[in-house]
Amino acid sequence: MRSPSDEFEALATISTLGESEREISRRMRMNLLERGADSTPYLIAGSGQGGYDNIIMGPTDRVLEDGDVLIIDTRHHF
Question: How many domains, in total, are found in the chain?
């Protein structure tokens, strides 16, 4: 079983430019559940050029572009 931190490390390989925050977040949640998480009570995400202006948000349908910074924070139970 991979650790939850492995999912964060894998983000660069499971996400691509042109995908939305929502698509990437959904994939991360599914990966956590497939790896044995019982639940993911919350998962936030946000992105923007050079950073983001809020950490309590999304995910939204905003599409990632070159130069964006993506933040994902989640709580999950194993």
Answer: 1
Segment 53-77, tens digit of pLDDT: 777 788 999 999 999 999 898 887 7
Q: Where are the beta strands (DSSP E) in 1-78?
A: 39-49, 68-77
Q: What is the pTM of this model?
A: 0.84
> Which residue range(s) make up the domain with 24?
4-77
Does the bond joining 4 to the residue before it have cis omega, within 30 degrees of 0?
no
- For residue 6, report the phi and psi dihedrals to the nearest 5 degrees: -60, -35
Extract the tokens encoding 72: 């994902």
Contact 35, 27 (CB under 8 A): no
Residue 19's SS3 state is coil
Rounded-to-integer distance, Cα 35 and Cα 16, Å:
22
